[in-house]
Amino acid sequence: LTIGTFGNVVTIADVTLQAQVEGTLLRYAVEEGAMVKKGDLIAQIDPAPYQAALQEAQGNLDSAKAQLANAQVTLQRQQELYKTKTIDLADLQTAEANQLQAQGAVLTAEGQLADAQINLGYCTISSPIDGKTGIYLVDAGNLVAANTTKLINIQMIDPIYVEFTISENDFDKVR
Fold first, then answer.
1. Which of 83, 85, 95, 152 lies 20 to 30 angstroms, CA to CA, from 163?
2. Contact at 8 Å (CB) between 46 and 24?
3. Which pTM does this prediction carry?
4. CA pair distance 53, 48, nearest whole angstrom
5. Most distant CA pair in the chain: distance in Å?
6. SS3 content of the chain, % helix, strand, coil (to 5)
7. Would you state the pLDDT for residue 2?
8. Alpha-carbon distance 136 to 153, whole Å?
């Protein structure tokens, strides 16, 4: 039985990769039309500014931890002095507030460090699926914008489907 009809070949997954950070696109690690596996390196954005931001965030965290340690020692000292009635309650409360503020600064610095690590990780773009790459949508050397610049398309081609329609008159023949 042969029935002439029109159809479309469709893929299960079709992904257009975009940069998640701003920077210079250093290179593509795959050729146009190449088969890739999930997790394969696709492209690299210049990581230098993000490595510097990571170092700065690590320095800020180290500094905040040192300030916290100092605030804790000061608080212990103030607590001892308050017990002996050498200082008044206001000095003790100031030391407690400074210690809490230093704890908050450590949490903030830890968050900034985590953010810097995430951004540095976004400089390496990997394939989220197995499939075939399309054409480069921007060439290496260009400045790419975060969440707007499309880099390359990847389509899963195994398995692949064909969608088609047949007329109602032919349906009984097929069935």
1. 152
2. yes
3. 0.77
4. 9
5. 103
6. 45, 25, 30
7. 82
8. 8
Q: Which tokens go with 6?
A: 């029109």
The strand pairing partners of 126, in sequence order, are: 41
| pLDDT score of 172 | 82
pLDDT of residue 96: 94
CA atoms of 32 and 154, how far apart (whole Å): 10
Radius of gyration, alpha carbons of the chain: 29
Q: What letters, b where the CB count within 10 A reaches 16 and e where it falls short, cover 46-70?
A: bbebbeebbeebeebbeebeebbee
Alpha-carbon distance of 133 to 156, in angstroms, equals 9
* Per-residue tokens: 85: 């009635």
Q: Spell out, as residue ranges, where the chain has pLDDT lower than 50.
A: none
Residue 175: both structure tokens together: 């069935």
Q: Record the tokens describing residue 108, joined without a space.
A: 């903030």
| pLDDT tens per residue, range 123-154 | 999 999 999 999 999 999 999 999 999 999 99
| CA separation for the pair 65, 67 (Å, rounded) | 5
Helices assigned H by DSSP within 84-160: 89-121
Tokens encoding 98: 């400074």
Q: What is the pLDDT of residue 150?
A: 96
